[in-house]
Design a protein that fits this description.
Elements lengths: L13 H4 L15 E6 L3 H12 L9 E6 L9 H6 L5 E4 L4 E2 L4 E4 L4 E6 L2 E6 L9 H13 L3 E5 L8 H9 L3 E5 L8 H8 L5 E3 L4 H14 L7 H5 L2 H14 L8 H14 L5 H10 L1 H12 L9 H15 L8 E7 L5 H17 L4 E8 L2 H9 L1 E3 L8 H7 E4 L4 E4 L1 H4 L2 E5 L11 E6 L8 H14 E9 L12 E5 L4 E4 L25 H11 L3 H13 L2 E6 L4 E5 L17 H4 L5 H14 L3 E10 L2 E11 L8 E8 L2 H17 L4 H97 L2 E5 L5 E4 L28 H14 L3 E6 L6 E10 L5 E10 L1 H23 L3 E6 L4 E4 L1 H7 L3 H4 L10 E3 L12 H8 L3 E9 L5 E11 L9 E8 L1 H8 L1
Parallel strand pairs: 1-2, 1-8, 2-5, 3-5, 8-9, 9-10, 11-12, 11-17, 12-16, 17-18
Antiparallel strand pairs: 4-7, 6-7, 13-15, 14-15, 18-20, 19-20, 21-22, 21-25, 23-24, 24-25, 26-27, 26-30, 28-29, 29-30, 31-32, 31-36, 33-34, 34-35, 35-36
């Protein structure tokens, strides 16, 4: 079989490697294609699935393509095994094979497989020692080629292969099933897909065929009501769905493209086996879980690391260096990535930016904001954990430098050095405020899901957010539309743009104009009544809340480390957010003039467990200083950890003035000069600083002692672990891949063993039931195996296996003939038969000796079968004696006797018949009873025809015919009158004669007297 040796990375690259199919190559009738992925433990699931599928007698009208992790070296028996459990045609895939319905296609070993224009193409693996993900590879191509007709099933297996492929299928509107993890031998593969929120049905393998049939019936065979003209014109039904989605998720989908929304709704209706759209709305109203599932389906999109390699290469070489031009050293590069999904693209951009910063070595800093509407996707992105399948999309250099591999969990995690560069947050681009002063925005493959009206608002929004000459990166199918006056194209192929001069402000969006449609409940008094009853506060709580808001100072509830638990009042004058990773710690957020005193007061309050008060602190806010009193007070509660209340009381202007006046009066009364006053202030500050430093030093010494002891231990351990960890990581991947393949081989071998045991049992029962003794010997005539029946004539016991056959005593009189016969068969390979009697002579055996041939036609010895023919020999002797007696009687009788078969041919004649007729045996045997050599007449001289002959009448009627006299004219004109009795003869159980016996005697003398 000819193979395409070119390796492709993504199924989308098939268009560069596979010639496009001609129109007549495309399927004439579309049908769903089901991709089934499995690894270790998958054979049992295949057996159950196809056994249950075969119970359906109707045509399934689906194609099944099996992708199993197989040993790359050995031949696979999967096609043979699956073929036992299904009535469908089973094929091992060949390159370019066209997919047809009601067929099963199985991937061959050591190949990757992709689908293009309804045909399967095979690609060789580049290395046997790299981690393979053939299920993801095929599922991607299945999604690209079949769109909503793609169905994926993930069965038992280790690792995460299939999860990314399932995401691709879901993004194209397809359906995903997974095996219940509890029913699998290895649950990693289905469990990963389930946890990613990609699975529509979680079922046992036996439940999948019926659910599959139901889904395809509703998804493809029944006419969809959503796309019918009556429903499209009347948008009321879809608006109801948007309202239900917004009421639960808070997000408005009415401004998304209807085609995208409709496809996802249709798919959910098919999953729930619902035809009528109003019925589906009823389900949404009753089942909040279905609303959430639909919401997640609407958000699913495919994202990869460095997706579109050429575009990212251009970004790295041309765009990223331009971002740093004319930027002073140490400045900050600000990046916004809306619609970041699970973070792959955001991290890809962060890696490229960090690489460039490391090359420049000028102290540049990065601040990257990655946002998305999907909170689950944001959580996943923030953690930065991805399946091993990402290795196909990332270069080995990037993997080693920016990722940490966990061999036990089979995952990669972005290193902290990259994770700390990004701030992930949930954001609805349609209604939430945008970021500003950005140097670069990457919004790829988001605008294609939004209608043109929203696109017209978002493009100016990006223009507003960018700094002068800022760069915009869009998806391959997206453009800036009619806003060429706002952006200058850098590269039209890769959709990269640069912001134009924004001196004309009329195009800048007004933040807040982009708002979601509101849910109007004004006409429903019951809703207002419920809201009123739920939100109506008690008067005491209302009063306390008002007093706290009006008169209570700014307060912060913290623990002994300064971690913030609660903030009351306006804290912006005293606290400010930290740069980099967001941390809610009051000691890090305190403004200039407050930090040192706050640390001193908090430590003192923790140590003494009493209220500490510091007055007249000068805090720098917005370039000016404000005076504040600081109070740190322990909170009396049983909470763990212990909490402390930090109060920040702002000093009024009058109080500050009074302090100044008092200070002036004192200065007049005293003789202290102004210099002395300044000196006293400096001394007090010095004392405060010394106290602060002392507290800090005490904490540092304690911490350093603990760290020093643990650091020494960790350093020695780390050196040992680091050397072994690198070796373990590389070998772990290889072992995991080999282990999966060995598990598959083991399952196949187990199936073969089961078949062999069954065949062996059948053979043993057959031999034992037949009563035929059998001995198997090798080339040296050593006994390999024997059946119990043979021990009656050869004295074999189980311990004789491996002994020469000639050394074992037999009951045959001529046992040497047996050995000679076996040797002769092994020499000339011609089967041989012997008849031997036992020494007593009472038993006789027929011995058949044949060469022992394997399936490969190799001779590995001989097979001897012993058939007891004693009864047969006795019967033959009895028959021979009976025939002798019959022949004596037959020949001694005076009447002539002739036996004629049903065709009228003479088959046997006795001596008297020859004598009476005057004909020899050769003249009679084999001739017809109506042979022209003689003529027959009746008494009235009329001729005897064939049909009127007594024998023919007896054969036709089955009755005895007698007393008929015929005249036979011979060649010498001699006439003989005979009296005939024709007797029909029957076989047992039959009612038609198979021959007739003609008995006759010579009555010529009697007839002559009558004539005289």
């Amino acid at each position: 079989m000819k193979q395409n040796k070119q390796k492709i990375k993504n199924p989308s690259d098939l268009k560069k490697n596979v010639t496009k199919a001609k129109l007549n190559d495309l399927p004439t009738k579309q049908f769903p294609i089901v991709g089934i992925g499995a690894s270790a433990g998958g054979l049992a699931a295949f057996e159950t699935f196809f056994s249950e599928l075969s119970k359906n007698e109707k045509k399934i009208n689906m194609a099944f393509i099996l992708v199993q992790h197989l040993d790359p070296i050995h031949k696979s028996m999967l096609a043979e095994i699956v073929g036992r459990y299904t009535k469908l045609l089973v094929y091992e895939v060949e390159d370019g094979m066209k997919v047809k319905p009601d067929c099963v296609y199985i991937i061959p070993p050591n190949r990757d497989m992709a689908l293009r224009s309804g045909k399967l193409y095979l690609f060789e693996r580049q290395s046997l020692h790299t981690l393979r993900l053939p299920i993801d590879y095929f599922f991607h191509s299945l999604a690209t080629d079949q769109h909503e007709r793609a169905i994926g099933i993930i069965l038992s297996g280790t690792g995460s292969d299939g999860t990314l492929g399932a995401r691709a299928i879901k993004s194209e509107g397809g359906m995903i099933m997974a095996q219940k993890p509890a029913s699998t031998e290895y649950n990693s593969m289905p469990k990963n897909a389930i946890e990613a929120g990609l699975v529509d049905y979680i079922l046992l393998p036996s439940e999948m065929p019926s659910k599959l049939t139901d889904f395809t019936t509703y998804a493809f065979l029944k006419k969809s009501q959503i796309i019918s003209p009556t429903v499209v014109k009347n948008e009321n039904a879809l608006k109801k769905i948007f309202i239900l989605l917004q009421s639960q998720s808070g997000h408005d989908f009415s401004q998304y493209k209807p085609s995208t929304i409709i496809r996802r709704i249709e798919r959910r209706m098919a999953v729930n086996q619902i035809i009528n759209l109003n019925d589906y709305i009823s389900l949404l109203q009753k089942n909040s879980k279905e609303i959430n599932t639909l919401f997640q389906d609407l958000l699913i999109g495919v994202t990869l690391f460095f997706r579109d390699k050429e575009a990212f290469a251009f970004l790295k070489e041309q765009i990223i260096p331009a971002l740093f031009l004319n930027k002073p050293s140490g400045s900050k590069i600000r990046v916004w990535i809306p619609g970041c999904s699970t973070g792959e693209e955001a991290y890809s951009i962060a890696i490229l930016l960090q690489e460039h910063i490391d090359q420049l070595k000028q102290g540049f800093k990065l601040q990257i904001y990655a946002t998305d509407i999907d909170s689950k996707a944001i959580e996943q992105a923030r953690v930065g954990i991805y399946p091993v399948s990402i290795a196909d999309d990332i270069s080995p250099t990037h993997l080693e430098r920016f990722f940490e591999y966990n061999p036990d969990a089979h995952i990669y995690r972005i290193k902290r050095v990259i994770r700390d560069l990004l701030i992930f947050s949930q954001q609805n681009l349609i209604k939430d405020p945008p970021f500003s002063k950005m140097d670069f925005i990457s919004c790829r493959n988001l605008l294609i899901y939004l209608n043109s009206e929203i696109q017209q608002k978002i493009i100016p929004l990006f223009h507003y957010s960018l700094n002068p000459q800022g760069k915009l990166f869009l998806g391959s199918a997206e453009t800036i539309g009619n806003f060429s006056h706002l952006f200058l194209p850098i590269d039209r192929k890769f959709k990269l743009y640069q912001k134009k001069d924004d001196s004309n402000r009329q195009h800048h969006p007004v933040i807040g104009l982009i708002s979601p449609s509101k849910i109007n409940n004004s006409n429903n008094p019951q809703i207002h009544e419920k809201i009123s009853s739920v939100n109506k506060p008690k008067l005491r709580e209302l009063m306390e809340h008002t007093l706290l808001k009006q008169y209570a100072p700014t307060s912060v509830l913290v623990d002994k480390e300064g971690c913030i638990f609660y903030i009351h009042g306006r804290s912006g004058r005293y606290l400010e957010p930290t740069s980099g990773k967001s941390e809610l710690n009051i000691l890090k957020m305190a403004r200039e003039g407050l930090k040192h005193d706050l640390l001193k007061a908090l430590n003192k309050s923790v140590k003494l467990q009493e209220t500490i008060r510091l007055t007249g602190l000068s805090v720098k806010t917005n370039g000016d200083f404000s005076n504040v009193n600081l109070i740190v007070q322990p909170v009396n509660s049983n909470t763990n950890p212990k909490l402390y209340l930090v109060l920040l009381e702002e000093m009024s202007t009058s109080k500050v003035k009074n302090n100044i006046q008092v200070s002036k009066k004192k200065s007049k009364k005293s003789t202290v000069t102004e210099d002395d006053t300044d000196l006293a202030i400096l001394k007090q500050k010095l004392i405060d600083n010394e106290e602060f430093l002392q507290n800090t030093n005490e904490q540092l010494e304690t911490t350093n002692e603990e760290l020093r002891s643990s650091n020494e231990e960790m350093q020695s351990i780390n050196e040992e672990l680091q050397s072994t960890n690198e070796e373990l990581e590389t070998s772990k991947e290889e072992l995991q891949s080999v282990n999966e393949e060995l598990t598959t081989i083991n399952a196949e071998l187990q199936t073969k063993i089961t078949d062999s045991v069954q065949a062996n049992n059948d053979l043993n029962n057959l031999l034992a039931g037949s009563g035929i003794g059998t001995i198997f010997v090798d080339h040296q005539l050593l006994v390999k195996r024997f059946t119990p029946s043979v021990t009656r004539v050869i004295n074999l016991i189980q311990s004789d296996v491996g002994r020469p056959l000639g050394h074992i005593v037999s009951n045959f009189a001529d046992d040497e003939d047996l050995i000679k016969g076996v040797v002769a068969v092994l020499d000339n390979l011609i089967p041989r038969e012997l008849e031997l009697r036992t020494k007593e002579g009472d038993l006789c055996y027929l011995i058949n000796i044949r060469p022992y041939r394997t399936l490969e036609n190799v001779i590995e010895g001989a097979v001897l079968t012993f058939v007891d023919i004693t009864r047969m020999k006795s019967a033959e002797n009895a028959k021979r004696e009976s025939e002798n007696k019959k022949q004596i009687l037959f020949d001694s009788i005076n009447d002539g006797v002739i036996f004629i078969d049903k065709a009228g041919t003479i088959v046997e004649v006795n001596a008297s018949a020859e004598k009476i007729l005057g004909l020899s045996l050769n003249q009679l045997n084999g001739h017809q009873i109506s042979d022209p050599a003689w003529e027959m007449i009746n008494k009235d001289d009329s001729p005897v025809t064939r049909d009127s002959h007594p024998v023919i009448i007896a054969l036709k009627t089955g009755r005895q015919v007698q007393n008929t006299i015929g005249i036979c004219f011979l060649k010498d004109a001699q006439r003989v009158w005979i009296h005939i009795v024709a007797i029909p003869q029957f076989k047992v159980g039959e009612n038609k004669p198979y021959q007739a016996c003609m008995i006759f005697n010579n009555v010529s003398a009697c007839y002559a007297k009558e004539g005289q």
